[in-house]
């Protein structure tokens, strides 16, 4: 697996991967990232100076984007990052790459000074939920500050 930091040239390709995934799972609806204003400009968000944010782009052997994963501060919990936008192309799924990306973003979170990681997801994303639980996340009650109103499953993990 090859990874690198997100670049502006990646924005529309990554947005397409995310939207394709959500549409395939009937989550191309309001209240999901599908309609986020900044989805076509994720590099602006993750590369903002002075912020503890990061996004990894995953590449295949032909250097084509096959997915990614990000993090940003989650203010409601102290020293907490939110795992964000873990999406893979269909070709990249089923090879354990999601687990590798989770480990990679957790390592980056620790480097940035975070002590725990939060994420939100939906019942329709059963494969992702399986990965999160297997990666050590435990389910919690819905935080009051949830932005994506359609999300209905919430997880937290203490980082080492």
List its traits.
7-stranded mixed sheet, Aminopeptidase, about 25% helix, alpha+beta, about 160 residues, about 25% strand
Question: What features would you describe in this structure?
Answer:
The chain has 160 residues and is of the alpha+beta class. The chain has a single domain (2-115), classed as 3-Layer(aba) Sandwich (Aminopeptidase), CATH 3.40.630. It has helices spanning 11-24, 42-46, 97-111, 126-134; strands at 2-5, 54-59, 65-73, 80-88, 116-121, 138-140, 153-158. Strands 1-2-3-4-5-7-6 form a seven-stranded mixed sheet, sandwiched between helices. It starts with a strand and ends with a strand. The relative contact order is 0.17. The model has no long low-confidence stretch (mean pLDDT 95).
Oligomer: single chain
Ranges where pLDDT stays below 50 over 5 or more residues in a row are none
- The span between the termini is 23 Å
Structural class: alpha+beta
Shape estimate: globular
Element-by-element helix/strand order: EHHEEEHEHEE
Question: The CATH topology, please?
Answer: Aminopeptidase
CATH A-level architecture = 3-Layer(aba) Sandwich
Give the biggest beta sheet.
7 strands, mixed
Give the overall average pLDDT.
95
**Helix proportion of residues, in percent?**
25-40%
* Cross-sheet strand order for the largest sheet: 1-2-3-4-5-7-6
Give a nutshell description of this structure.
With 160 residues, this protein is of the alpha+beta class. The protein is 27% helix and 27% strand.
């Amino acid at each position: 697996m090859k990874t690198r930091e997100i670049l502006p040239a990646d924005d529309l390709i990554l947005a397409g991967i995310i939207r394709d995934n959500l549409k395939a799972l009937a989550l191309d609806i309001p209240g999901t990232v599908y309609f986020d204003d900044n989805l076509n400009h994720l590099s602006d968000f993750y590369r903002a100076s002075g912020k503890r944010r990061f996004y990894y782009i995953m590449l295949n052997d032909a250097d084509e984007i096959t997915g990614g994963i990000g993090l940003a501060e989650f203010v409601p919990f102290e020293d907490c990052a939110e795992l964000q936008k873990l999406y893979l192309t269909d070709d990249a799924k089923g090879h354990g790459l999601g687990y590798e990306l989770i480990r990679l973003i957790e390592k980056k979170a620790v480097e940035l000074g975070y002590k725990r990681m939060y994420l939100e997801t939906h019942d329709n994303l059963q494969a992702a939920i399986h990965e999160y639980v297997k990666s050590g996340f435990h389910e919690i009650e819905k935080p009051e500050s949830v932005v994506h109103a359609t999300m209905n499953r919430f997880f937290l993990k203490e980082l080492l």
